[in-house]
Amino acid sequence: MPKVSIIVPNFNHAPYLKQRIDSVLNQTYQDFELIIMDDFSTDNSRDIINHYASCSKVSNIIYNEKNSGNTFKQWKKGVSLAVGDYIWIAESDDWCEPTLLQTLVDGIEKDPNCAISYCQSYCVTKDDNIRFQSSHNKLSEIVEGKTYIQQYLSVPIAIFNASMALWKRDLFHLIPDELTSFKFCGDWYFWINLCKHGNVHISGKLLNYFRKHENDVSGKAYQSGLNFIEELKIISWLYQDSLITENIYYKAFKKKYIEYWRVKTTIPKDNRILIKALFRQSLSTKTSLIKLTPIAIFKTLK
């Protein structure tokens, strides 16, 4: 049995597919199977995928007969086919350095209670310009799961791209079915739930390339305001379940409110009404943010 199951879920990412799949096949760590899934793409993705049908590393190629409409339903289907101890969701429009998998496997095996191992990532445009890059102050570190939630999964969110991370397959059944109700923040919800059941290995190495372009899922979510709706839901859940303190909750809530003020005029009216209602439902005992101007909020953050 392979140690790692690599799942490449694709939808209309034909321009990036070859680079993605080749970067997987060229890993220095070779104890893996590759599962390629296409969610009823309308571009020439199938033609590209078919070139890999005879590859010995490819264990499954799945073509949906209709679009699932949900990235996380595809994750669930992929995991149901996987046989490896670890899962790597290698998003179809990203790519990576050849040593990514070796680094993440070495990291997760440092601690038998480790649930996730991840590296740092570049965020690049479709023209390969670097928008930003993440960082960590140690080359390798293990952090206790609940501590990790407070320090790295509230403000800010350190695992911002699924392709950065490797995780234990046998923990997947512990993830609530609510995962598939998310269209944007499901990965954040997923990492939090994994951290409730294990520790996290952080590699400080920059080994992943997260591509941002006009056809990615997050771009559409930001345009509609869906990101705020789902993010506020998760922030409230974290606080209600005592996974973060009131101070962390309030800081995260304020951060979202400032971000919302910057873009609110671009969001459709119906979603603006819903988002404003969610901000009015603050769980903090502190002053209600909805009554403050952005300038006043900035002052409270200092």
Could you outline the blueprint of secondary structure elements for this entry?
Blueprint: E1 4-10, H1 14-25, E2 32-38, H2 45-50, E3 58-63, H3 71-81, E4 86-89, E5 95-96, H4 100-108, E6 114-125, E7 130-133, E8 140-143, H5 145-152, E9 165-168, H6 186-195, E10 199-212, H7 217-224, H8 226-240, H9 246-263, H10 269-280, H11 294-301
Parallel strand pairs: 1-2, 1-4, 2-3, 6-10
Antiparallel strand pairs: 4-9, 5-10, 6-7, 6-9, 8-10
Can I get a quick summary?
The chain has helices spanning 14-25, 45-50, 71-81, 100-108, 145-152, 186-195, 217-224, 226-240, 246-263, 269-280, 294-301, and strands at residues 4-10, 32-38, 58-63, 86-89, 95-96, 114-125, 130-133, 140-143, 165-168, 199-212. With 302 residues, the protein is of the alpha/beta class.
